[in-house]
Structure formats: C-alpha cells, structure tokens
What we know:
Layout: H1 10-27, H2 33-54, H3 61-68, H4 77-84
Helix pairs in contact: 2-3
Amino acid sequence: MFTPNFQITAALTQMLMDIEASRQAVSSLPITLPVLTSLRESARLISTHYSTQIEGNRLTQAQVDDVLHGGTFPNRERDEREVKNY
Length: 86
C-alpha cells in the first residue's frame, strides 16, 4: 500500500485554503463578450492548426491564422484548402 511521505501542517492547510479562495474569485469573474470572442477564436486557431498538422499540413500556426483571415500561400493550395475546410 502506498504511504505518502508528507504531513499536513498548518502552513500547508493555509496555502490550500488560499489557493481555493483564489480559484473561487477567478471562477466568479464575469467573462465579457469581447473576451469570450477572443477565447473562441484562439481555440479555433489552435485546434485547426494542430488537427490539420496531424494530417500532414505544413502550415505554421501564423500561416493558419492568415489563411483563416483570407491570406494565401503559393504552392500550398492543398494545405490552405484543408485549413479552410476544417
């Protein structure tokens, strides 16, 4: 049986309580529409980049961002099409 090698001290308990209080404070903050929109766009960009990269797409994350905003890259039409259709 595993026996952890630590003790729950008053200092450790206080640190855990501070962490929980901070977590509660952050989770109760309102998320404004611009922040939510930015988070969704970032998630879409990162998801598109890594998912298409797994399939062999050679575009960088910055290039994927450019393609999603209308940019083009000569001789990379297949990669662009894959990003646009993701």
